Amino acid sequence: MSASLSPRVIRGGIVLLDPTSSAVRRVITLQYNPDSVARTFQVRGAGADAGARAEALRLTGPPVQTITLDAEFDAADQLEFPDAHRTVVEVGLRAQLAVLETIVYPAADAMRASAALAAAGALEIAPAPAPLTLFVWSKQHITPVRITEFSITEEGFDTQLNPIRAKVHLGLRVSTVNDVGTGTVAGGLAMTHHRRLEQLAARQSPAGMAALGIEQLS
Q: Is the separation of the CB atoms in 15 and 144 below 8 Å?
């Protein structure tokens, strides 16, 4: 099949938003989509210790969801066309990897400002603000997240020891209204994802008891 007839596969990635204005600061696409994305859920239930027995059947909020994935990066395709990819020729994958690394670093200017306040005798210094991070895995799966795990394995190098192949492991915790409230940008995005899940579930045709080999519960 020719390339022109092949389906266009969209990329997964990360979007960084200004936490106050919701303005897009940066869009980070994965060079190659990972073969698998693992999602785990820790249910928030009232539990038997909540008092009345009926409380054991209640949910206190959305589950704690974690997402893990491994993404691969390879400079080979870009190095085939060096004139169009001068940055890759000069520093390999360092610039692409640096974009991901800076997500988990506070801004250098903010750190300098905090240091100046401390030197001036400020008693309380607020932590440096971080952008709101969204994990985008199709238009049906857009969630606010916090990066909890991040590792890079560099697997090949050019003559200047710049990485030309690398694997990135990401662990993400999905933010819910239990974490960020309902009146925030992150809370609004969390609720949108929650509603989207319910809408998708409603599209699935329900099964009948006969599918389970029973006629009624008794």
A: no
| Cβ proximity of 55 and 78 under 8 Å | no
The answer to whether 196 and 177 are in contact (CB under 8 A) is no
Q: Are strands 37-42 and 163-174 parallel, antiparallel or unpaired?
A: unpaired
For the stretch 114-158, pLDDT in tens is: 888 888 887 777 777 788 999 999 989 999 999 999 999 999 999
Q: Give 28-63 pLDDT, tens digit per residue.
A: 999 999 999 999 999 988 765 555 566 677 888 899
Distance CA 46, CA 61 (A): 9
Measured CA to CA, the distance from residue 157 to residue 160 in angstroms comes to 7
